[in-house]
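Review session, final week

We close the course with one last complete record, chosen because it touches almost every idea we covered. It is Transcobalamin-like C-terminal domain-containing protein, a protein from Desulfoscipio geothermicus DSM 3669 with 349 residues. Go through it on your own first, then we will talk.
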Amino acid sequence: MQKHRFLCLLILGLMLLIVTACAGKGTGDEPANVTPAANGIESKAAQKPGTSESGSQSVPVAGTEKKVALRLTRDFGRNSILKKTVALQKNWSVFDVLETSTRVTTAHGGGFIDSINGIKSDFGGFGGKKQDWFYYVNGIFADVGALDYYPGPGDIIWWDYHGWERMAMFPAVIGCYPEPFVRGYRGKVGPTVIMSSEDNIMLAENLQEALKAQGVASVTIKNPDAGLLKNRQGPVIVLGQWSELSQIDWLANLNNAYTKNGTCVHFTSDGLELLDYRGRVARIIDSSAGVITATGEGSGDESPLWLIVGTDRKGLQQAVDVLVTSPGKISGLFSAAIVAGEVVSLPLE
């Protein structure tokens, strides 16, 4: 009897460990520095509704009337599945919003989202393509499971089904603009800083006014500063030509990490390389071009880094013009390159 009881307890313990691993630690096949919270339902102790991790209250924004925007896409935003506004109920999590509006199935004892609207997670088998669901809040890759994030009024919840590789990740995306500059992540918004040299001050001022018009509370312009880049206290936008920005070691090192930083671009001495989702070069631009892209320090980074950079003055001007006068052109994109006036969705296929 005692032996039988011991075996039962041992089996139960092993089952709990398996469920915990699937819901919190993952299988070991997730992208580098990405927690399985991208797909998992439960991953950390639940965040209290209406607060950030630091305990600060969510930022109220007039006119939102306790609604959130829900987006479902696939292939890095290229194909739209669902786009709707959902009335936000008290204590609702991201999972509640999703479950109310779609057909969701779960796996691993309910700790992992298996499919949304019939589109199922696929781990590729031997040598196959891994594809899964990942979610972002206001353009920030979530660091907790869908049951553990409590959105606030006006938040944009974006689920995208796409391929992934272990060394590639996308900590932040541009397609929720003007987020994350208005509401931020978990209702916490730091001051926005535009880093620009004096040569590009007029472009920086145009962008500053555009952000304020979108409802961004605090936007200042500062000279490029490696220390500020390392210790961001809010969203930072780097604006300039690559020839000048490459002189900053921190940015040069970021550019050299192009295979895994999620920007989908790589500046070279000959021009600009555009990447696929694996971080491989898919197109080379040797003419004037600009980019609008974003990254961060892993998932849940409340102070993401945006790059508005040109291969030359013309390319930079094109990138700024898109964000200032035609921001709808980047809606639903992970990153973008502007080549000959055309907005190119990144990563490339």
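Two points worth writing down before the exam:
The domain at 30-163 is CATH 2.170.130.30 (Ferric Hydroxamate Uptake Protein; Chain A, domain 1).
Residues 1-37, 43-48, 50-62 have pLDDT under 50 and may be disordered.
Good luck, everyone.
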